[in-house]
Design goal:
By secondary structure, the protein is mainly α. It has helices at about 5-30, 40-50, 55-60, 65-80, 100-120, 125-155, and strands at about 55, 80-85, 95-100. The two termini are about 30 Å apart.
């Protein structure tokens, strides 16, 4: 398989930015987004999926520095969406949990995203929807394998 050209790479990059921008703005348009960033939402989702996760895992999963992850967590705590407590096994580490308000926000936001995606997919011909899904699945798989490879290289 040949490598895509610089123009094609630029087009792919621009298309991905467009999708990300529209996805974020459309998914939040019907909800009270409370001034949260996409990093904030992804952090909330990670905590919902792994209650009592350490701040360090937020940084690792989102590609943030330790101070960047701490800033996101602090912002979410200030908004009353997250609580943190000392880890019983390691007093230096902080464990994160969603508050009731944080849990409701994640559920409502996720529901809004799902509705928007469903409307979008239903407006496509089924073959196009399948192609988009398969392309995104493959792209996400490649991103995850690159992320793992890069992490392995930096840990050596």
């Amino acid at each position: 398989m040949s490598r895509i050209t610089n123009d094609a790479e630029d087009n792919l990059y621009n298309d991905l930015l467009t999708v990300a921008w529209h996805f974020n703005s459309q998914c939040s348009s019907d909800l009270d987004f409370e001034g949260l960033t996409l990093s904030d939402f992804l952090t909330l989702r990670l905590i919902a999926e792994a209650p009592e996760c350490p701040v360090q895992s937020i940084g690792q999963n989102l590609g943030l520095t330790k101070s960047g992850a701490s800033r996101v967590v602090k912002r979410l705590q200030t908004k009353g969406l997250v609580t943190s407590a000392c880890c019983p096994q390691d007093g230096r580490a902080r464990r994160l949990c969603l508050t009731e308000q944080g849990t409701k926000f994640v559920e409502n936001f996720t529901e809004g995203q799902s509705k928007w995606i469903n409307r979008l997919v239903q407006s496509m011909p089924s073959q196009t929807a399948e192609q988009v899904h398969e392309s995104l699945r493959l792209f996400a798989k490649f991103i995850n394998s690159e992320k793992q490879r890069t992490a392995a290289e930096t840990s050596n």
